[in-house]
Amino acid sequence: MGVGSSMQKEVINKESVTICFAGDSGDGMQVTGTQFTNTSALAGNDLASFPDFPAEIRAPAGTRAGVSGFQLQFSSVDIFTPGDEADVLVAMNPAALVASMIKLRKGGTIIVNTDKFSERDLAKADLEENPLEDGTVEGYEVIQVPLGTLVKASVEGLGLGAKEVDRCKNFFALGMAYWMYERDSTFTKTWIEGKFKSPYKEANLKALEAGHAYAETVEVFQRSYEVPAATLQPGTYRNISGTAGMAMGLTAGANLAERRLFYGTYPITPASDTLHALAKYKHYDVTTFQAEDEIAAVCSAIGAAWAGAIGVTGTSGPGLALKGEGIGLAVMIELPLIVLDVQRGGPSTGLPTKTEQSDLTMAYYGRNGEAPMAIISASTPADCFDVGMEAVRIALEHMTPVMVLTDGYISNGSEPWKLPDVDSFAPISTRIVTENNNPDGNFLPYVRDEKTLARPWAIPGTPGLEHRVGGLEKQDLTGNVSYDPQNHEKMCRLRQEKVERIADFIPEQEVFGSEEGVLVLAWGSTYGAVRQAVIKANAQGKKVGHAHVRYLNPFPKNLKEICERYDRVLIPEMNLGQLSNRIRSQFFIDAQELHKLQGQPFKVAEITEAIDKLL
Amino acid sequence: MSDIYENEVEGPEEGVNYSKKDFMSDQTIRWCPGCGDYSILSQTQTVMSTLGIPKEKIAVISGIGCSSRFPYYMNTYGFHTIHGRAPAFATGAKCVNEDLSTWVITGDGDSLSIGGNHLAHLLRRNVDLQLLLFNNRIYGLTKGQYSPTSEVGKLTKSSPMGSLDRPFMPLQFALGSGATFLARSVDVYAKPLRATLKAAEAHKGTSLVEIYQNCNIFNDLAFDEVVNRKVKDERVLFLEHGKPMTFGSSDSPKGLRLVGTRIEVIELGGEFSESDCLVHDETNSLLASILVQLDFPEFPVPMGVLYKVEKPTYNEAFNAQIDAALEKRGKGNLKELIYSGQTWTVE
User: What is the CB neighbour count within 10 angstroms for residue A314?
Assistant: First the structure.
């Protein structure tokens, strides 16, 4: 507690808190949220964050469409989601207030910037009445702060213009939040010092300190809350976003295989950040290529894979649609290619900045002909690391394209990550050959490994192994063009079986919780909400298990048996039943579906409700 | 006219280590009898045998179309990709494997219609490779629709009343895209074609060679009024760097001269002599912008190297950044990667 407080402050201990920052997309809410997240991580909390912003870079100021939000839950116990409902909403204007109140729990706290409530501000937010006066906020604890005025006073004398002053107000808000939750602002101060030049550096530091001092001084803030450090497993931690995790996982995989990584991509929300991350890893032999379009992106990656690199292309839904033909070629010629799809709301341009799991069907079937490929998915931000590395392993050891599905929610979200022991990583082997496998004749590029059915990888430049590959059907073994009917069927079946045999090399599916009753079968970013709901159900003595499937094609060998063990199977998905369709057709399991297509992740309560209906 | 342009059919040139045969694959060639592709294949194989490049370091990458079957017939590393995208595959391959002498084989439909975007970007990036554009002004593999280089009014199955779109002039398109090497040749001009292919290979950067290629099935004699032996002296301008732009038979020599900002055909021997003619400077981009527009019947069609300029290549710059990063930061190790940023320890 601060010495010299003007009043006696009550500090309340809380297990976990969910806080939501909301403002214009130019208000710096993402920065504010990220700073709070990292500071909480350093304080030892478990946490999960969820940035939620519009597709427009600077949507019209003050409008509901322009509201940018950042929600995070920090906790002294294990948590899996950014929280169903916020305890505190920091709203920078009327639009942010009315658009984000839906996220706030009944009776929660609203800290609101009252300097943005002129008639004009209300009109921009399509409000006829002031929501602070018309009963909208009744039943909530409302703390009205004239943020603009206070910030202006705090940075006086630094010679900033009105616009520049206004840009400091997110740090004022952050300063208040730090006081409320007993956070140390050292991390943010260091960050500001490194990020901004004078006089903006001083201005932001002053705003941060002023916000902290204001909260400490004024009587409306009567309590602060302390969320003690979580009892996490011993180890070294860092906060990780899914994007950063994926970039590191891919890099680690390529390094373990001692192959250059080539990332060919075209900027698209929300996948672009993967390019930004990988572009910094050149000293890890990671190369990035910003292609002229999505098609060139996948094709350049396949070209690089043909020439000896691990080829990776990253995109989101609309881009994946464009890459279909290229991926089909990689299936046909059997090269190590990774296709990262950071899913977003669809169809078409859909909801670029909102999350969804609706590309699964495209991942399974979105190519002409019989074109099977491995599909894996990541369940949390930290899991993206493991999945990135695993994708490289499968692609190289099985000589196959691998689809990696994440989504906007886990890519932008973050959580503490217990850092793995680098020495524990298994090496990744490749199918590279340098000797002719057919000494009496030409090299045979389609002779297969007995166990995996993977073909050899003869990299151009290798003497004596000159050969041709292409998209035309190829003769078994030689790879020469072949129109032979029997050969075509054989090759289709071989490519299919090669992918199916990956099941021999992946772990069996694990189940959490009850071994009988209701099974919640889920994949991807629904992990957090499902796991929390299942923990809760088990604590209440309900028989509920959770199987979270990373390997979507092929499935783990025991998945069917697991499904059959339970009375009911519930499959929650942020789509209209895409995994359910596959499970039903492949396993004859009559699964109960739960859909959500709102651009927002599932809440724990929504999963709980669906579970309870089946019990 | 220099002897390199004489249209004589020669036996294969003996290479440093190879003969032409070393570059012939064991696959049966499936182009139509009489197709111009045969000659281009033959000249390419011959040229490759003389380059002194080990054949395992030659990568032939193609798109889709008749010409794009080319890699199957080359005993090198070959990649028959998808329609229009060969430049993108080649860019990825060349960037990660710079040792590869990379050759892109494409046609007018493949590179200017479905793949126009990729061709433009390949040229502006200046990836070090050769792109042989077989221009036959027709879609052959899909059996005879008009192409983006077909003349207006082309009667085909898909344009029974004549095609409506104006054609691309490939080299003009390429110059506008920032090409650093532009050349033109003809499928059956064996020796000039070989010389042009060699010049293309020697150029560092994207070397685009437009090759007039006869499709005797769907667009026979498409270039005949220009390239036929009987008329070519009058209608083809063989360019040589540093030499005046002259053409025509010995009976009626002609040349090109610049009048103001216009090009004019002049008769030599009377009022004008060679000294009045434009002198070819393949490094002059303004001159190139004129040359790429010259077309029959108003002008003779320029053949040989129209333009050649040294510019940094994409693949070199791409790899130089890797080297620079390694120099500055040292080879990355995984522990540093993962343990970077703010970490904390739980006891």
Answer: 33
- Tell whether A464 is within 8 A of chain B (Cβ): yes
The tokens for A309 are 């690199």
Q: Between chains, do A303 and B321 touch, taking CB under 8 Å as contact?
A: no
Whether the Cβ atoms of residue A144 and residue A97 lie closer than 8 Å to each other? no
Q: Is the confidence at residue A26, as pLDDT, over 90?
A: no
| Contact at CB, A262 and B76, closer than 8 angstroms | no
Decide if B285 contacts B310 (C-beta within 8 A).
no
Helices (H), chain B: 37-50, 86-96, 108-109, 116-125, 170-176, 190-202, 224-227, 232-235, 285-291, 314-329, 334-338
Nearest to A481 by CA among B78, B20, B104: B78
B91 inside 8 A of chain A by CB: yes
Q: pTM for the full model?
A: 0.93
Measured CA to CA, the distance from residue B204 to residue B127 in angstroms comes to: 8
Confidence of residue A312 (pLDDT cuts 50, 70, 90): very high
Are B52 and B17 in contact by the 8 Å Cβ rule? The answer is: yes
Say if CB A342 and CB A377 are below 8 A apart. Answer: no
pLDDT digits (tens, 9 = 90+) for A490-545: 999 999 999 999 999 999 999 999 999 999 999 999 999 999 999 999 999 999 99
Contact list, A309 vs chain B (CB under 8 Å): 92, 96-97
Round to the nearest angstrom and report the end-to-end CA distance of chain A.
48
CB contact at 8 A, B94 and B204: no
Model confidence at B277, pLDDT cuts 50, 70, 90, reads very high
Report pLDDT for B342: 79
The CB density around residue B331, as the number of other CB atoms within 10 Å, is: 10
Return residues 22-41 of B near A (CB < 8 Å): 25-27
Other beta carbons less than 10 A from residue B161's beta carbon: 7
- Residue B8, pLDDT > 80, answer no
Q: Which two tokens stand for residue B238?
A: 């063989």
CA distance B82 to chain A (A): 7
Cα separation, B82 vs B159, in Å, equals 26
Q: Give the bridge partners for A592, in sequence order.
A: A570
Q: Are A295 and B85 in contact (CB under 8 A)?
A: yes
Flag whether pLDDT at A56 surpasses 70: yes
Distance CA B195, CA B186 (A): 12
- Say if the ipTM goes beyond 0.85: yes
Chain B: closest CA distance from residue A606 (Å): 33
CB B182 within 8 A of CB B292: yes
Q: How many CB atoms lie within 10 A of CB B326?
A: 15
Any alpha helices (H) in A106-199, and if so which ranges? Answer: 119-124, 147-154, 162-166, 169-180, 186-195
- A445 contacts A455 by C-beta, under 8 angstroms: yes
What amino acid occupies position A226?
A: E
